[in-house]
Records
---
Amino acid sequence: MGKTFRAIVVREREDGTFTRSIETRDTDELPPGEVLIRVHYTSVNYKDALSAIGNRGVTKNYPHTPGIDAAGVVEESSSADFKPGEEVLVTGYDLGMNTSGGMAEYIRVPASWVVRLPAGLSLKESMIYGTAGFTAALSVYKLTGAGVRPDAGEVLVTGASGGVGSLALRFLAKLGYRVVAAAGLVEESEYPRVEEKLKSLGASRVIPASEVNDTSGKLLLKGIWPGAIDTVGGNVLATVVKQAAYLGVVTTCGNTGGHELNLNVYPFILRGVTLIGIDSVECPMDLRLQVWEKMAGEWKPDNLEDFATEITLEQVEERFRLLLDKKSQGRAVVRVQ
């Protein structure tokens, strides 16, 4: 017998429905891997909520423990790269999808997935970032690397009230960009409060999502944005590309607004617009480490711990509901231990 630990376990009933509960497991039940990590913190993501309701596009086999992020301390390692007692984090790859995830007191993973905790970050702060923060930072890294400078004009962030969007906003503001935040999934009565919140995070101005959701059918729109980070996809992404300025750069990393993209070639052949896809799951380790160093250093926002709500494993179920109802704002970090 190995070590016993608590974990959220999703099980499929005979009628095809799914249940979620906190169970006691044994580390001998975990999948193979060189590094056993005692998890201190994880975070709650939309992909975790999909896994928790049995979405086969995320998780194929049940029972399963969700959690695409994890931060903790190495308990055992057969890899020369990591030693017991080291603080580490894991985001992306197959964690929480078909590999038992971070909503548990232990995970076992391949050493090639593990990132040593960068100096300047605590375990909790790394999970306030989590996959959402890494995706946001990778978007900013690609945008700045494509030559979009702070003096180019206002840059846009869509879905700015969500986890990825709000962190992208903070990174860009920290770097001196004038950021326009498009606030989606916000009821009209809530808009003033959300506007105030986004401005406190560094937005120079806030616009309703309707301004980047054009339904006119026009092939091109007035060129506005020298750079944009889209977290929504669908028609919003199509609108932003058509609104991009000459030689504008747009990154895309999400599909909550839809997975289809109805575009024509004119933004690309008449304005030279660049569209960059962002994948944080299989991001190569050398690039992954560079981005985490930025997040721990010069890009790190002030008062990062104020950015997320800390919850327990018992409170994760409510967060799943908010995410699935598209009512979740900001980040939730889970104290696992």
---
Amino acid sequence: MRRLAIQAVTLSLFRFTSLPVQLWAFAQMGLMRPALARVPGIGFWKLCGSGTGEGFTPIPNRQVIAILATWPDPATAEAATAGAAPFRRLARRALESWTVVMEPVASRGRWSGVTPFAPQPSATMPPPAESADGLPLAALTRATVRGRHLLRFWQRAPAISRVIGSDPNVIFKIGVGEVPWLHQVTFSIWPDAATMAAFARGDGPHGRAIAAVRAGGWFDEELYARFRVLSARGSWGGSDPLATRFPALNREAA
């Protein structure tokens, strides 16, 4: 069966080192919004900051800016994130940048009152937990933390971050957010569905935190999504995080 055009989702990361460039990048998070909204093909988008350490901690990381966006298809996503003015402007001043292009395979919940990700109908897709053709899978969790639960949430979050960082199966991980402490996004990439599920559902800090969230109603709004990783471009930490296990996904090497 011929597949319909698929929605593409991108996460673009930019790292800035010197303080003057960091201040410039911080200013761009406000100034570049109108230009970003006018990029041809862009749909839902968010400009985010990051946390320190493993990326998901209450201490902001001034070095990192993230842009998450949806596009009508992977070709548009790749062209826009490489050539559109807001992305080029950040990349020129960044020490390094990395963009991952993905296809949504499952999504539940809302983000800023909308459902941003559009997986294809199940008739044309394998089961959401599975990866086709051996492609890696990405997981994204986004939540708005209720103010009265902030302390309890951030008492648990660093432990979850440490466990993700020490998991030998995780290929990449980062925590980003629109508003520090209140709006939080966790993003990670895994080689397959089994390793992703083992972390998410195991009897560890993550599993216990999920149980506490559900029992206590810690979040005002939440979204859980899974993606199939299609390609990557650039470097993070000096190399493409996918290069060792999935070298064929690197567009610059292709």
---
Amino acid sequence: MTRPTDKYNDPGPRTFRNLLIRGGLLLVTAATVGTLAGWTKRVRATEEVAAPDVAVVSRRMGSLGEQLASARGEMDLMRVQLDRANAILDNSAKYQIPSDLAAAIYDIALSEGIDPALGFQLVKIESSFKADARSPADAIGYTQLQVATARFYQRGVTEKALYDRDLNLRVGFRFLKDLLVKFDQDKHLALLAYNRGPAKVAEILARGGDPTNGYSAAVLEGYRAPSAEAPGWH
């Protein structure tokens, strides 16, 4: 038989839960106080650190800027090199010519201010990419230069020298570049002057005539001028 006093002396489950809750609150409070104390110490420690030297920060920022600029420059260079490699491979396949010849035409055209695509078309029509090509008018090599024309750009050049690949391409492209300037970037007139001679074309134009003979159309057949965003030349 349960005594009346036992009912009140037994803590029961509710009281036990209350004790657990109170104990938990005490633990949370202690942890919070400890955390705040640690945070306060860290703040004080941070406050004791001297402010960074402005000159040092400036140098470090400048160094970072230089590294970023260098990285951008390297990326641009890689892009140009990739574009060059793709263009050489594409033109080598398109015209069925060795890659070293395609590379020479591409690089020398750029160096002389000629769109490489136009350079390839010129060499195709002039010599069919044959180094030893020679016309009845004694025009020689890849770009079919006459000695008199070549000597205007390189004094004392010989017939034998005009069979040199790079020399022939360089002088031929330089001649075409000058004709483009003379005829205000009109490719048809510049090419006609390359074929017929600038004096002849100028004379026909002065008389109100048309110097067209089909040559410029043959060179420009399938040619596409580069877009303003095309890399590598202007």
